[in-house]
Each structure stands twice: as structure tokens, then as C-alpha cells.
Design a protein that fits this description.
- The protein is an alpha+beta fold and 69 residues long.
- It has a single domain, classed as Nuclear Transport Factor 2, Chain: A (Roll), CATH 3.10.450.
- It is 17% helix and 43% strand.
- Strands 3-2-1-4 form a four-stranded mixed sheet.
- It starts with 8 loop residues before the first strand and ends with a strand.
- The model has no long low-confidence stretch (mean pLDDT 93).
Length: 69
């Protein structure tokens, strides 16, 4: 894993065409190596904009904290 900063919110599209949100938490060990924990949220959304809106309301997400895959 690289030492690049990981966006805390990942938006993905599943096989049914719905968008899903994964919340990622980055911690660092004693040597400064990043340890990333991911939690896929149960909700699915019709659009990526709906996912962003949900993340802003529930997780207080800000612009620039999203990655799309």
C-alpha cells in the first residue's frame, strides 16, 4: 500500500446499477504506515449525487473527500 492519503468516502456502482457508499478510516502505526479500515454502508442509491448528499448529512462529508470507482 502506498503512503498516499486515501479519500474517506468511496462511491462505487454495483452490478444492479445502484451506487453504494464505503466509509474508510485511515490510522497510522508507530512507523507511520497507513492502516485503512473500510465499511460498506447498507443503503443503495440511484445516483452518485444522492450518495454525496447522504454522506454530507450523515457523516458531515465535505467536497474533495470523495473517490469514485
Amino acid at each position: 500500500m502506498s503512503r498516499e492519503k486515501v479519500a474517506p468516502f468511496l462511491i462505487t456502482k454495483d452490478e444492479d446499477g445502484n451506487f453504494r457508499l464505503t466509509v474508510r478510516e485511515t490510522r497510522y502505526n508507530s512507523q507511520g504506515y497507513p492502516l485503512v479500515t473500510s465499511h460498506l454502508q447498507e443503503e443503495s442509491f440511484k445516483t452518485a449525487a444522492a450518495v454525496r448528499s447522504h454522506a454530507r448529512l450523515v457523516f458531515k462529508a465535505e467536497p474533495g473527500q470523495f473517490a469514485i470507482k
